[in-house]
Each structure stands twice: as structure tokens, then as C-alpha cells.
Design a protein that fits this description.
Layout (H helix, E strand, L loop, with lengths): L4 E4 L7 H10 L8 E5 L1 H11 L5 E3 L5 H4 L4 E5 L15 H17 L6 E2 L5 H6 L7 H9 L10 E5 L4 E4 L6 H7 L2 H17 L7 E5 L14 H15 L3 E6 L7 H4 L4 E4 L2 H11 L5 E5 L5 E4 L16 H19 L1
Parallel strand pairs: 1-2, 1-5, 2-4, 3-4, 5-12, 7-10, 8-9, 8-10
Antiparallel strand pairs: 6-7, 6-11, 11-12
């Protein structure tokens, strides 16, 4: 039996606490057990604000699975959270980061099966001195063993209809041209193919690689990056036995017939990947980090400060993230 999933509190002033409480309320016999890394008193206040009768119990990770059917298990992070809905305060950043650190420690020690993260507010973290670009990069840093470089993390947005991978992630668009290299595309493709085999159980993954410029450069008429950078990467992946097509025009990759031709799309920058999946699967897409020595998933949305504490937040993406984490843990255990 797999250990329970470790769910971080995320930004306390956002909708993470709301959807956590709702996900527990909507659990059924097939729901994977999870515990929340947070503050039980804070979650009890938020449940009262939302009018939810959620029993909450502070436990150790080892007691979470037995507690889960009857109460929401909370593992205390040692920080009394005081943030109100929509209003981050001085406890927001320390609580969000402490929960992430403890979740990683728990999964590394075998106390948790996977890390599932609620949304964070990067602007709040940056003001508190956080120096990583985002969740993905911070998790890679925490995953590094002493004296070793962090693993190369790859962000995949997954849904039953579409899986996309931005090769460059949290960068201003003007910097993409400086960062994108053949080596980065090849490294990303290798990690995606490996994890599709080992965790998703796809025997021979098919990758589609987008172009960077309109019409994939139109044979150099609209920029030479597609010829000079992307095409050699596709050729290298093919030479390594990975089924790969591209560079393909980004505007024709995501209709239903095109999606049937691949298992994951490698896109050259953030919005090229996220716009199609958020259009196709806004409520049930999941963010999962490939390339880490443990499973990590997250809902594919932000903190939504404007609706925090109102009861309007939809827990569907978090519930999909929990289900996918359990599935990937099971796949990793079998491989």
C-alpha cells in the first residue's frame, strides 16, 4: 500500500485552503488519502468562513491514512497562519515555503508517496526574499542530494485530452531567444520520454515539437531558429530512438486530429504550451514536474485571491492532481 500524499497549504490567503477542504468533503472510496502540511487552527477558521463542517485533526504523517476517512489530517508546520482570504500577510511566505520543504522531506523519507502542491503567490514570496523562479525550480533544488547538482526539472501540464511541456518556462518572452538551445530541447525530450514510459506506462511515447516562429519559420523566411536550433534537436531525439516530429507550426498542433498523433507536445515557451491546455481542459488539467526523484503534481491554476474565502473555488483541478499523483506513484512502484 502506498503512503498518503503530502499536500502543501500553498498561499494561505488564496484558494488553496478552500479547495483542500472541498476536496476532502468530496472524497469517495477511490480517493487517494492525503494530509495537509499547514496549521489546523487556520484551516478550521477557513472552514467556518466557508460554512463547511470539516472535522480537522492534527496528526503525524504515519497516522494520516487511518485518519483520512473521518477527518482531514493536518501535519503541523510550526507556523501559526494569520492570513485572511485575499490578504497575504507576514505568515504567508514562511508557511508556504515551510510546507513545501516538509513535503519534500516526507516523500524522501518514505512518509509520503508524492508531493502535491497548492498554488503559491510568487510575488508574495519574492517580497519575502525568495530567489527561485517558481515552484518547479525550488523543488529541484530541494531534491538535490548533498554535493550534487539539482536534477533538471521539466514542467508538464497534463489532462486526458492533451499533455504539453514548455521547454522554457518562467521567462520574459524576449529572453526565450537567448535561453532556447538544441541541448535544452534534447534534454527536455529525453526526460519527457523517460517519464512517460516509467510513470505513465506509455511503452513508446510520441513527441511533437513545436516551432518557435510563425509557421515554424517558413523555411527560414520568418527566422532561422527553427532550422538552426529546433530541427537538430528533433533529429537527435529521433537518432536516440524517441518517436519525435517537428518542428511543427504552433497554430496547427492542438486541434483534435493533431492531438491524436502524439502523447506530449514540447513547446518552446510558456504561453505556447499553457494557452491550448487551459482552453481545452481548464478545470481538470494538472501540473506535474518530470525529472525529479519523486512524484509532484499541482492544480493548474493560481491563487485566485479575488474568490478566496467565498466558496466559489472549484476543487476539480486539485482532485485531478491528487488522482494523478496516486497513479504516477503506482506507475513508479511498478517500474
Amino acid at each position: 500500500m502506498l503512503p498518503p500524499l503530502a499536500l502543501t497549504i500553498g498561499e494561505p490567503a488564496g484558494i488553496g485552503p478552500d479547495i483542500t477542504l472541498a476536496a476532502w468533503m468530496q472524497r469517495d472510496a477511490g480517493s487517494p488519502p492525503f494530509y495537509v502540511l499547514g496549521d489546523a487552527a487556520f484551516l478550521a477558521r477557513r472552514a467556518q468562513q466557508l460554512g463547511l463542517a470539516v472535522p480537522i485533526r492534527t496528526v503525524a504523517p504515519g497516522a494520516a491514512a487511518a485518519t483520512f476517512p473521518d477527518a482531514l489530517p493536518v501535519v503541523d508546520i510550526g507556523i501559526a497562519i494569520t492570513a485572511e482570504p485575499g490578504r497575504p500577510d507576514a505568515t504567508s511566505a514562511p508557511a508556504a515555503l515551510a510546507a513545501i520543504r516538509m513535503a519534500v522531506a516526507d516523500v524522501q523519507a518514505g512518509r509520503a508517496g508524492a508531493v502535491v502542491t497548492n498554488p503559491i503567490a510568487k510575488a508574495v514570496l519574492y517580497k519575502a526574499g525568495f530567489r527561485e523562479p517558481g515552484h518547479t525550480e525550488y523543488l529541484a533544488k530541494l531534491a538535490a542530494r548533498d554535493g550534487e547538482a539539482p536534477p533538471h526539472p521539466v514542467m508538464m501540464l497534463w489532462s486526458p485530452q492533451l499533455a504539453v511541456v514548455p521547454v522554457t518556462i518562467h521567462l520574459p518572452l524576449r529572453r526565450v531567444f537567448n535561453v532556447l538551445t538544441t541541448e535544452l530541447i534534447v534534454t527536455t525530450g529525453r526526460i519527457v520520454a523517460r517519464d512517460l514510459i516509467e510513470r505513465f506506462g506509455i511503452a513508446r511515447p510520441r513527441l511533437a515539437v513545436s516551432g518557435l516562429n510563425p509557421h515554424a519559420g517558413e523555411d527560414g523566411a520568418m527566422g532561422d531558429e527553427d532550422i538552426a536550433i529546433i530541427r537538430p534537436a528533433v533529429e537527435q531525439l529521433i537518432a536516440e530512438g524517441i518517436a519525435t516530429r517537428g518542428p511543427l507550426p504552433g497554430d496547427t498542433m492542438f486541434h483534435a486530429a493533431a492531438r491524436a498523433q502524439y502523447d506530449a507536445a514540447l513547446c518552446m515557451y510558456h504561453d505556447q504550451a499553457l494557452i491550448p491546455i487551459k482552453t481545452i481542459a481548464f478545470d481538470d488539467a494538472v501540473n506535474t514536474t518530470l525529472g525529479l526523484p519523486f512524484v509532484r503534481t499541482s492544480p493548474d491554476h493560481g491563487t485566485a485571491f479575488d474568490i478566496a474565502g467565498t466558496g466559489a473555488a472549484n476543487p476539480a483541478s486539485l482532485m485531478a492532481a491528487l488522482r494523478l499523483a496516486a497513479r504516477l506513484c503506482d506507475g513508479a512502484a511498478r517500474s
